[in-house]
Amino acid sequence: MRVAIFSSKNYDHHSIEKENEHYGHDLVFLNERLTKETAEKAKGAEAVCIFVNDEADAEVLEILAGLGIKLVALRCAGYNNVDLDVAKKLNIKVVRVPAYSPYSVAEYAVGMLLTLNRQISRGLKRVRENNFSLEGLIGHDVHKKTVGIIGVGHIGSVFAHIMTHGFGANVIAYKPHPDPELAKKVGFRFTSLDEVIETSDIISLHCPLTHENHHMINEETLARAKKGFYLINTSRGGLVDTKAVIKSLKAKHLGGYAADVYEEEGPLFFENHADDIIDDDILERLIAFPNVIFTGHQAFLTKEALSNIAHSILQDISDAEAGKEIPDALV
Ligand code: NAI
């Protein structure tokens, strides 16, 4: 099948081409993000492969349907950027990669927590300048702290396991339909969202972004959280009201924020803007705090994850071409 691969970078190219030796699909790699302005580039393809910041809203899906696109294959787990109702109406199948490597993101969240809490990046910068002073670098033990997890699926349960067994933290978690067996197996306790918000020393977000939970971390929830708590977001930027985070950091209520995602990341992330003037005062204010660490949606980026993603999307494309059922299809 001819597949237009939007937002593709060298690492996608390499991993997908290598895996395609077993599949033989006709792949067209495009640097551009999928938007209403670029959708026409899919002309001649029967499927598009997209990533987290590509826009598959109603308008874009209409254009794709007009071009004869029958399949949208997301090379990620989250699918908040696709209008599934419209895709269904247009008879476009949508598939994603539900679990390519939960370890990649869970381990990265742990890395972000330690970098923030133990001020590792500040320490590294000091030593580069022959500054061996430890003043201002005091952190906390994670051991015996209460770690609250919001969303306990593939990634959240690996993160819970590391926090419980690796750090000896007291892990509490919330998800809409708790799974007592999972909690027992991993060694954490399910509780209400309120208890997670109000009693955690560290809160890590591992749920998808939906219409219902947009800005679930907002001025009101931040005010109810423990003074000095750390917030870790490797999930989706839209879960967090960034302006409220800035306000809470300025009030010295939120103790620190570690984020790999940002609610307005679409036009910025995955590109080098080192020579540009960034026209986003909220982001620039946020990253200026000494107790904020920020990366550009890199939590998924391991060799294992890239290889599993390539295998999963190419297999789904082959199955769709052969008219087979795809168990994880969203539409
Ligand atoms: P999953 O589908 O396995 O688990 C999601 C969990 O969130 C489930 O337990 C579900 O019940 C729960 N949940 C759903 N709605 C909720 C709500 N309103 N409040 C609390 N919990 C809720 O997904 P997985 O694979 O664990 O991924 C989680 C998220 O991580 C993805 O949706 C994606 O947004 C993000 N992600 C980020 C990456 C990165 O590179 N930064 C890479 C991969 C995923």
TrEMBL record:
> Matching InterPro entries, A to Z?
D-isomer_2_OHA_DH_cat_dom (IPR006139), D-isomer_DH_CS (IPR029753), D-isomer_DH_CS1 (IPR029752), D-isomer_DH_NAD-bd (IPR006140), D-LDH-like (IPR058205), NAD(P)-bd_dom_sf (IPR036291)
Matching CDD domains: LDH_like_2 (cd12183)
Under the GO molecular function aspect, what terms does this record hold? D-lactate dehydrogenase (NAD+) activity; NAD binding
What keywords are assigned to this protein? NAD, Oxidoreductase
The cross-references to Pfam families, in alphabetical order and at most eight, read: 2-Hacid_dh, 2-Hacid_dh_C
Which part of the chain is the D-isomer specific 2-hydroxyacid dehydrogenase catalytic domain?
3-329
Q: PROSITE patterns from the xrefs?
A: D_2_HYDROXYACID_DH_1 (PS00065), D_2_HYDROXYACID_DH_2 (PS00670), D_2_HYDROXYACID_DH_3 (PS00671)
What are the residue boundaries of the D-isomer specific 2-hydroxyacid dehydrogenase NAD-binding domain, all occurrences included? Answer: 110-299
Q: Which SUPFAM superfamilies match?
A: Formate/glycerate dehydrogenase catalytic domain-like (SSF52283), NAD(P)-binding Rossmann-fold domains (SSF51735)
- Specify the domain of life of the species encoding this protein: Bacteria
Family designation: Belongs to the D-isomer specific 2-hydroxyacid dehydrogenase family.
Q: What is this protein called?
A: D-lactate dehydrogenase
Upper classification of the source organism reads: Bacteria, Pseudomonadati, Pseudomonadota, Alphaproteobacteria, Sphingomonadales
